[in-house]
Amino acid sequence: MKKDFLLLLAGVGIFISGCATAPERPEGKEALSAAVKEAIAAFKAKDPTIETFFRDSEGYAVLPKVGKGAFILGGAYGHGEVYKNGGLIGYCNMTQATIGASVGGESFREIIFFRTHADMEVFLTGEFTFSAQATAVAMDAGAAAKADYRNGLAVFVMADQGLMVDASIGGQKFKYLPK
Questions:
Q1: Torsion of CA 44, 114, 126, 21, to 10 degrees
Q2: Cβ-contact 68, 78 below 8 angstroms
Q3: pTM
Q4: CA atoms of 52 and 154, how far apart (whole Å)
Q5: pLDDT, tens digit (0-9, with 9 covering 90-100), for 65-120
Q6: Strand partners, 82
Q7: What is the C-alpha separation between 168 and 179, in angstroms, rounded?
């Protein structure tokens, strides 16, 4: 089992090393920007109280589409844009590896809010990792009003499509690239 997990991680690493953090062409950047704007609008439509996080946080990262799949061993990948004080400052990508009782596939959207300048600077160092203890709030009407920052972060996810049964552990790793 340990050998299988290591092989999966190696395979994910090889696959992801070919995925760019930022789109290379202007039309790719425009498409990503449009997807980010649509994701933000979807989060706000689902729960208007999330507006307080956009208003009060130092900044945020928006991943408009993250694809995830698993059969015991799992992986996920997505990329997005990073904002500080409401302005685009760069791009990010996220990779995830998990192990556990997981089967299926899904896609989701994710927004990470950074409470303070110091919290955001940790993310902007270039490589940032969530531990298995990081908690994301599933977006529902009123969810943002009840949510708060944990260790300087507030993380929200919204399922798009797919079916997945997931009781696994793992972590998310982010890379940041300035604009």
A1: 0
A2: no
A3: 0.81
A4: 12
A5: 998 888 888 888 999 999 999 899 999 999 888 888 778 888 889 999 999 999 99
A6: 61, 90
A7: 34
Q: What token pair was written down for 146?
A: 């009840």
DSSP state of 149: -
Tell me the residue ranges of DSSP E strands in 23-152: 59-84, 87-114, 127-130, 136-138
**Beta strands 59-84 and 87-114, pairing class:** antiparallel
Contact 79, 143 (CB under 8 A): no
CA distances from 177 to 55, 82, 127, 153 (A): 23, 9, 10, 19
pLDDT digits (tens, 9 = 90+) for 111-124: 999 999 999 998 89
Alpha carbons 24 and 103: distance in angstroms, whole number: 33
